[in-house]
Design a protein that fits this description.
Order of helices and strands of chain A: EHEHEEEHHHHHEEHEEEEEEEHHH
Low-confidence stretches of chain A: none
Largest sheet of chain A: 5 strands, antiparallel
Structural class of chain A: alpha+beta
Low-confidence stretches of chain B: none
Chains: A alpha+beta, B alpha+beta, C alpha+beta
Largest sheet of chain B: 5 strands, mixed
Mean pLDDT of chain B: 95
Distance between the termini of chain B: 50 Å
Strand order of the largest sheet of chain B: 2-1-5-3-4
Oligomer: heterotrimer
Structural class of chain B: alpha+beta
Shape of chain B: globular
Distance between the termini of chain A: 53 Å
Number of strands of chain B: 5
Strand order of the largest sheet of chain A: 4-5-10-6-7
Number of strands of chain A: 14
């Protein structure tokens, strides 16, 4: 008895948008691994749930031209298992592997992870590092927003009433790019991170000069953030370990962590520097290995 | 309170219920269908005691809306055995002392059964990864890991496979 | 047809499968939460929203008026009903004041759990806030408010020494402590802090009470100690003992958390008021904010040693933060007197151990109560001493270890001592002499522990068909002590197969007395009762054959011949352990009975940049006296070790702004299967004097040495000494 008076299962995006727009207290339901908890705790009290799982469109997962399109309803488990994330985009698989446990990942979706907008959402730093965008459908039509424009504040997003995320688009990288994700928490599973970091590094033809970089951070600001100032340290320069350390230092300086039950702000800042250095190192090593390997 | 009619199968048996639309699968299984083998311990998807399989994949039924299971197949610990023959995971739990108070056991055995379906001979590390959503407070997990690894070996030795 | 008695099978010492295993893996086993009664109502507790204050008004009008509500009770509606067993300081519903956030203020019984919850929320409570006592330091400040201004008027057990906010002061004094400190080559002085941790049994507290036609009450509860609960209900509610029946259900874990009256008094009162069966089950949040976790403690420890590392004297002051009411705290703090010195030789000892009231949920018993806090201190400091003196920590312990015939801290004569063997076995298993790699370290820690006494009884019934029913008041809380251990003993004592034995247990109306599943006692005490009951049966058979040599040669045969079931009865109470009573005060337990000895060793990898501790290997060596069932003995030890690892690295029931900040399993972090290595268990067998076949209590000790073993390994890995639990990455970094 939680006040949910209706459970809708639209089969198209338009239908879902109409249902949500017509009922201000209705909320979209993806996997429900967070919403189910929020409703149990009485933190969210929707009168209706608009389940998105019957909308075929939201389940696509494919390389389309120069991007990977991940339907918002694609589960963490599917991303873990998909060969699309064998290569330069492996960081997304690594992030998905750390979401909750198998039970969470079986139903939890990438769209839900973003819309929920927890500062600790594991996939968000990766998508920020990738320069990914989200497709949004709503009463005012469709639009595409960069993930770096999507998070507006603590658990606030660019989604307006009636909007749903339909897909996430990640640029497909060249062969000489690599990515990685690292998460620090007290436990090794079922863990909300103390800090997490993702990196994407692309190298020029010399195999040394960084031509593109993305750094995403989680749990160290009111939202997951993209550390653009740290990225700038890398781009255009030959990558050395010293440079990676410098970038990590910038990333740690530019985040705004808080004290909470999991850790103090000071510790978060300290380990963010460590994580960013390590995650850049890992992404760089992967980029270099891939650059030397056979092209895909 | 309006009720919504839902149909799904539980351990192969068709079930039809009329429940409030926001009902969780756990509550419907226990309160409406008498599937008391599905346990509740945390109510927020953290402990795995309520794990059931939906179309063969493990979910935490305490935060899974019953309506999400519409027209799907739900499997609980009571549905793993075939007649008097325990599922290999269940037999291994018995044989290797993986059961103490047993409250977590129904969740563990279904999660482990799903693992073996996907990976018939998991390593110890794979078992630990796959079962990280199931808390046990009695065993320290040592015998649980041992049991699941052993069940895997048994499964691969099965000539039917 | 061969008689079962003729079988030459021995079951003790073998991995016999517990009787409830199949029901548990198929989910058919019935727990407390699975029980329901026809016509049952559901109860809900309304709890205090503030930490400390006077109750000005409790208005239940709206709650009572709700459709489906059958009763609402407040402190004003009931008699002077107070818990607990040692100091009767806790009104079961707040009367004039509340002393912790979450304290029961009212209870509701209604047709459904949802109605009960909604009605409880409608109760209006006005408080006049009082200054809160948040810590031991607050509580002992000269101007501290008294949590219990009327404390002197409370009934208390004579052993308890109280004064204001001090709920009990237990002390040990032996030898010339000050003289030895004055003359010692080295004195080490440190302070250690441990946190509040919760039993977190997966099944929470749950009970149903119903009033029977004759006026008696029948309580069905997931309880560890049905006879103790019956006594509690009688004491609290002023009911005749014989009018109460307690039946224990199957258990989803207890670990000491279900030894005292919890949900049951509310069920009984509401059943009496409504005439209907009433069920009350706590949510996870209620479990974590308002039941009886392990108290946090601050341990100030001074140790005097000679230049070679011989331990001379210890002087310790321990403050346990016990929360607002006593539950078992007065007894628990006394255990420090025995646990803190550890299994070492001392010339002099002084321990002052205080139970202190604070405005938090009352603490209670959790596996090895009182010990992990002080053993963390003692065993950590031993490694610091070893490091300072340049002595191998293993050597230091071996050189100071107690041996057979030595005296314990309070003067008990030690027998069956196996500490050095556990040390050697643990060191061998972990590869103590092999150097660990970079940022990798090894640590070990020891403890000794008691086998709690108290009476147990058993009845064995043999029918003409050869079937055996073992009737015992002992409770199977999951360890296998009853469903495997007692059955194995019964089988061997009668010479039958375990398959023909069924168990009936833990019901005050239908089974004989037992002091409950506590203090590592069940298999030890009830096992002896079973041996005694079997001996009774055998003597009946002997008497019959002596009287008439042509008569039956088996128990089943005799039962057939006489046409009635044969009944053997037995009871057992362990003899008290002698100790020097002049050395202790304020302690209910003055000696460890038939003590066991343990050493744990582990290997950790520490990330020097983040402080993260990764447990790579874990070895638990425990002297179990005599193995009754190797699978379940090792299983219990593994489980206890991982609970200890939980306290060492993960768990922390954390108060912030006067309330538990993490009342859920998201933020109260139990170790998952991915966080721990396999526990390598080694069972040492140094028989006890009194245990069945020489067995010692097994259940509790394995939780005790984990935290210091890990702290010592962290120090070995990166040279950082963490003196506060849990050992988080952040604390490791801060301690550098």
């Amino acid at each position: 008895m939680n006040g949910v008076g209706a459970f809708h299962e639209p089969s198209t995006v338009d239908e879902a948008v109409t249902l949500l727009a017509g009922s201000p207290d209705a909320v979209p339901l993806a996997g429900g691994t967070d919403l189910g908890v929020q409703i149990r705790r009485g933190k969210v009290r929707p009168t209706a749930l608009v389940a998105l799982h019957k909308i075929d469109d939201l389940h696509r997962l494919a390389v389309a031209g120069d991007e990977v399109v991940i339907g918002s309803g694609v589960t963490h488990r599917r991303i873990e298992r998909s060969a699309i994330f064998d290569g330069a985009l492996v960081a997304l698989r690594e992030a998905c592997e750390t979401v909750g446990a198998v039970q969470t990942r079986t139903v939890g979706t990438i769209g839900g992870n973003l819309a929920n907008a927890s500062p600790a959402a594991d996939t968000a730093p990766v998508l920020l590092a990738f320069g990914a965008t989200v497709d949004i459908s709503g009463p005012t039509g469709n639009r595409n927003v960069g993930v770096d424009q999507f998070f507006l504040g603590y658990r606030r997003t660019a989604l307006s009433a009636g909007d749903i995320i339909t897909a996430v688009r990640c640029p497909v990288s060249t062969t000489d790019a690599g990515s990685a994700f690292l998460k620090l928490g007290r436990r090794r599973a079922m863990e909300i991170s103390i800090s997490c970091a993702a990196a994407f590094v692309q190298l020029g033809e010399d195999g040394e000069t960084c031509t593109a970089a993305g750094i995403g951070l989680g749990s160290v600001s009111p939202t997951a953030i993209r550390a653009t100032a740290a990225e700038a340290v890398l781009i255009g320069n030959p990558v050395t370990d010293e440079l990676l350390r410098a970038a990590a230092g910038v990333a740690a300086t530019h985040c705004s962590p808080v004290d909470d039950i999991r850790a103090t702000a000071a510790y978060r800042r300290q380990v963010t520097r460590v994580l960013v250095h390590r995650v850049l190192r890992l992404a760089l090593d992967r980029a270099q290995t891939r650059g030397k390997g056979t092209p895909q | 309170m309006n009720l919504t009619p839902l149909r799904f199968t539980v351990n192969g048996k068709p079930c039809a219920v009329e429940v409030p639309p926001g009902s969780y699968l756990l509550d419907v299984l226990r309160d409406n269908l008498g599937q008391l083998e599905v346990k509740e311990a945390c109510d927020e998807g953290e402990c795995g005691a309520c794990t059931v399989l939906v179309d063969g994949e493990p979910v935490d039924s305490c935060i899974y809306f019953c309506a999400q299971a519409q027209r799907r197949a739900v499997t609980t610990a009571a549905g793993l055995a075939e007649g008097d023959t325990l599922h290999p995971v269940q037999q291994a739990f018995v044989d290797h002392g993986a059961v103490q108070c047993g409250f977590c056991t129904p969740g563990f055995v279904v999660a482990a059964a799903a693992l073996l379906d996907e990976n018939p001979s998991p390593t110890e590390a794979e078992v630990r990864t796959a079962l990280a959503g199931n808390l046990c407070r009695c065993t320290g997990y040592t015998n649980i890991v041992r049991a699941v690894v052993a069940a895997g070996e048994r499964a691969t030795e099965d000539p039917i496979a | 047809m061969p008689e079962p008695e003729c079988e030459d099978r021995r079951h003790v010492g073998r991995p016999v499968v517990r009787g409830d295993a199949i029901a548990k893996v198929t989910g058919q086993f019935e727990y407390g939460v699975d029980v329901s009664k026809p016509g049952m109502l559901h109860a809900k507790v309304r709890r205090s929203e503030i930490q400390h204050g006077l109750l000005r008004r409790v208005d239940v009008t709206a709650a009572k008026a709700m459709n489906g509500v059958h009763a609402v009770l407040t402190g004003g509606d009931i008699g002077d009903f107070r818990a607990s067993r040692f100091v009767r300081d806790e009104p079961i519903l707040a009367k004039d004041r509340v002393r912790y956030h979450g304290e029961p203020v009212a209870v509701v019984a209604a047709e459904t759990p949802a109605i009960a919850e909604a009605a409880a929320a409608l109760i209006e409570v006005d408080y006049e806030p009082l200054p809160a006592v948040n810590s031991v330091t607050d509580a002992l400040a000269p101007d501290a408010p008294l949590l219990h201004p009327d404390w002197e008027s409370y009934w208390a057990a004579p052993v308890v020494r109280r004064s204001g906010n001090i709920l009990n002061h237990a002390s040990l004094q032996r030898g010339d402590v000050d003289g030895i400190f004055a003359g010692a080559a080295r004195v080490f002085e440190d302070t250690y802090v441990t946190q509040m941790v919760h039993q977190a049994s997966l099944e929470g507290r749950v009970a149903i009470a119903e009033v029977e036609p004759g006026g008696g009450v029948h309580v069905t509860s997931s309880h560890q100690y049905p006879f103790g609960l019956r006594q509690d209900l009688s004491d609290i509610l002023h009911l005749p003992l014989e009018s109460i029946r307690v039946s224990a259900t199957g258990h989803g874990g207890g670990f000491g958390g279900k030894l005292y009256a919890g949900v049951e008094p509310y069920c009984v009162l509401l059943a009496q008021h409504t005439g209907r069966p009433v069920r009350l089950a706590y949510t996870r949040e209620e479990e974590l904010i308002a039941t009886s976790p392990r108290m946090g403690a601050t341990v100030h420890l001074r140790t005097a040693v000679d230049a070679s590392g011989r331990l001379l004297a210890r002087d310790a002051t321990v403050h346990y933060d016990c929360g607002a009411y006593s539950e078992s705290s007065p007894v628990v703090v006394g255990i420090a007197l025995l646990a803190l010195p550890g299994p070492y030789r001392w010339e002099a000892l002084r321990v002052n151990s205080y139970a202190v009231y604070t405005n938090k949920a009352n603490c209670g018993s959790f596996r090895g109560p009182g010990a992990p806090q002080v053993v963390f201190a003692g065993e950590s400091q031993l490694d610091q001493i070893a490091g300072e003196l340049g002595v191998d920590p293993l050597r230091l312990r071996l050189d100071n270890a107690v041996r057979d015939g030595d005296l314990g801290p309070t003067g008990q004569v030690l027998t069956g001592v196996s500490l050095t063997e556990t040390l050697h076995r643990a060191a061998d298993a972990i590869g103590w002499t092999e150097k660990a790699g970079a940022n990798r370290g090894k640590g070990l820690a020891c403890c000794w522990w008691t086998t709690t006494g108290g009476p147990s009884s058993a009845e064995i019934r043999v029918g003409g068909d050869g079937n055996v029913v073992l009737v015992t008041g002992a409770t199977e809380i999951g360890t296998g002590a009853v469903e495997a251990g007692l059955v194995q003993i019964c089988a061997d004592e009668l010479g039958v197969s375990p398959d023909v034995i069924s168990v009936r247990s833990a019901d005050t109306a239908t089974t004989p007395y037992d002091m409950g599943a506590q203090g590592s006692r069940t298999l030890f005490q009830a096992g002896n009762a079973v041996i005694s009951a079997a001996a009774d049966l055998r003597s009946q058979l002997l008497a019959a054959t002596a009287a008439d040599p042509g008569t039956a040669t088996s128990l089943a045969g005799l039962a057939r011949l006489t046409g009635k079931e044969l009944v053997g009865t037995g009871t057992y109470t362990a003899p008290p352990t002698a100790f020097d009573e002049s050395t202790v005060a304020g302690a209910a337990l003055g000696a460890f009975n038939d003590p066991s000895f343990s050493t744990h060793a582990c290997e950790v990898q520490v990330d020097p940049d983040t402080g993260e501790v990764r447990l790579e290997r874990y070895v638990a060596v425990q002297d179990v006296g005599r193995v009754i069932n190797p699978t379940y003995a090792a299983g219990q030890i593994s489980g206890g070790a991982v609970q200890g690892i939980g306290q060492a690295l993960f768990e922390d029931l954390h108060y912030h702004d006067g309330r538990v900040a993490n009342p859920n399993f998201t933020d109260y972090k139990l170790p998952t299967i991915a966080d721990v290595p396999p526990v390598e268990t080694i069972l040492v067998e140094q028989p006890s004097i009194h245990g069945p076949y020489g067995a010692k209590g097994v259940g509790e000790p394995s939780i005790i040495p984990a935290a210091p073993a890990i702290a010592n390994a962290v120090a070995d890995a990166v040279g950082v000494r963490v003196r506060e639990l849990p050992i988080t990455g952040e604390r490791v970094m801060r301690a550098q």
